[in-house]
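Subject: complex prediction, re-run

Hi both,

The earlier run crashed halfway through, so I resubmitted it with identical inputs.
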Amino acid sequence: MKAVTATKAVIAGIGATGFSKDSGRSETRLAADAALDALADAGISPEEVDGMATFTMDPTSEIALAREIGAGALRFFTRVPYGGGAACGAVAQAAMAAASGTADVVLVYRAFNERSGRRYGRAVPQDGAPTGAPASQALELGWHVPAGLATPAAWAALPARRYMHEYGATGEDFGRVAVQMRANAATNPRAWFHRRPITLEEHQASRWVAEPLRLLDCCQESDGGVALVVVGARRARSLPRPPAVIEAAAQGSGAGQLTMVDFYRDDIAALPEMAAVAERLWADSGLGPGDMDAAILYDHFTPYVLMQLEALGYCKRGQAPALVADGRIGPGGDLPVNPHGGQLGEAYIHGMNGIAEAVRQLRGTAANQVPGAGHVLVTAGTGVPTSGLVLGAYS
Amino acid sequence: MEDLADAARARGEVDGGTAPDPVNAAMVRHWLQAMGDTAAPYLDEGLAPPAMLQVWTMPGPDGGPRPSAVDTVLAGLDARGCTGVVATDCTQAYDRPLRMGETPRAATRFSSLRGPKSTAMGRGYFLTWDTTWYCGEERVGTMTFRVLKFDPATRPEPRAPGSAPGGTPEAPPPPPPRTADTAFFWDGAAAGELRIRRCADCGTLRHPPGPLCPACRSAAADHVTASGEGTVHSYTVHHHPPVPGRTAPFAVALVDLPEGVRVVGAVTGADPADVRVGMPVRADFARGGAEPPRWRPADQVPLPALELELTRTSVTAQALATRDFTPVHHDPDRARAQGARDVFLNILTTQGLVQRYATAHRPGARVRRIAVRLGAPAHAGDTLVLTGTDRPREGRVDVRGTTSLGRHVTATVDLEDR
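This time it finished cleanly. Structure:
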């Protein structure tokens, strides 16, 4: 059975601030600027906003944002946990609200000063967990941080090392992902790394962060905000710009999962949470991996891009390095990945900037446009309970 | 100071003359007794203990004359108020043992002068020189020696325990979070046990633990104590950003236990570059319950501790047996005048005790090299506790010596089986 979201809700508008390392603006200001930009794009007045969806980690409350943009009374608000794993999940929940009539106009937002303010790449406190996280998550980290495993890169390093061990992948295999993302960003004026591509040699010469991850395997830290406007499909006809149809939206976790320190399942060199999301996406959309014209894959750490390609069904286990080396994720390949440059190249807005890029691709307005893109896959953060979207062009 | 250093360097190798006496049984016996190492077989074999190398050419109580490549630099530092001296590092390498009847000759070469530096002893200079011992033309051993020459008048106020420089209190890292479901693990770590939750109904083991058994949903639980053996399933070497309480690079491993669960812990006793997937490791509980057990390469063997009560008699006897007549090692008033609590161990004795500890666990092995780094002084009235780790694959024993003031010595002893 198809989930209620399928083809019943659309992304009507996208908006963003500029992406920087020091916004000079408060996080609530960033959220409001992105929200108004998205509403203008959708041709919808702020007064019409009656729903909000964001991440549990977002520093701006739903009512604070509603106050700033002059929204009316809210009828729906929700937050999705697990860091960057929330991105597509927040859209999924907004879509369920809009499709069911719980709310008419749902604003999905994420805005932070993640470089000039609290930097997620830093070591977490020994007894700490991310803001707003439940005590059980602090307990999960409590098995790891006191052992010195205290940063997202260090948490991602253990599955990455095991992946190398299982499949003979190398640091250059990780590097080819970074090189492609930076090549894409180089021709995207929105990207922080616009006109700054890298070579594989530069990747290999970049300093260690947490072996086997080098600096250029890790996404940037960014200041900025992105907002999306989700409405019911009935409204699609009256929008000034083409919406993106939410063909499928799914959340998923693996059995026995932990957040970022999911080291206790049999196979840590794979992403069962993404496999669970993929299964649902393909079933709900009636589409398959081969039907996607582009993919926005969450690229916080390069090895997770390889593992996602496998979990999503683009190749067999351990074969993603060959897929990437063959150029298949680049422009003109059979699955262009992150034409905007991803979070390695454009900005790290917790996956939300990738959803906006998917909408641009479907509208035909992207900087690095995939010709005739009709279906785009989007994924959220991995190593955590995650989410995904299949978006389609409106016709 | 630079001109003094340049002049000293220009002297090249300076002959310090031959030992006043050939290697002889009386001095060896006296030294072995002072070190408490009388079970060692040196006398039976007609050999000198390697750590005695410097003893043979030490100046007598009158202080000389024994020319060296550093005496002009030392005198220059004295003239600038840097009258205090403490040894900080010494590495001796032994080409072969000295035999009874041989008369070694020492020659020194100035190496470097670094400073001025602010240290816990006061402002001063680190001075390094190399000594080579010869029997005839044959080189028999070498030593790199580093001292701090400091100005006792510039010694900073002692810091209160637990306070950081600048006077702001430095909070200890908070303990790992624990709940009623996890307390048994941390209690076990503090007691030197690696405990794994076991379902009291179906026997399923689980780590990390929680309130229920996911297999049968029972809340009844006890634990098993794991053997402490394991195999590295994956690992990282952390470089950046800084992690409080750690010095990068450091390795953290995800370890498969033969009991069937995995545990994460820091890696200890191994160069991070040597950690591998599949490496056999053994749990190490040196940090108690402050963190999960660390993991040490399985072929390393922790050695039993050796406690040595330090008395004025023992400190003085050892100083004399090593022919070190510096007053701070036998005269309590002179020691106090330099800011010490009492007479304290000289570095030649620390070397001798490190050698005794390392060789006691490897009888028959030949000592090829002893490297010591000194920390807090070991005073008469204190207890020196030596602990160590045998690393047979590397042919090395790591030795640590601790007193009530903290770490006195960190040493490595390279051994070769005969």
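Chain A has a mean pLDDT of 95.

- K.
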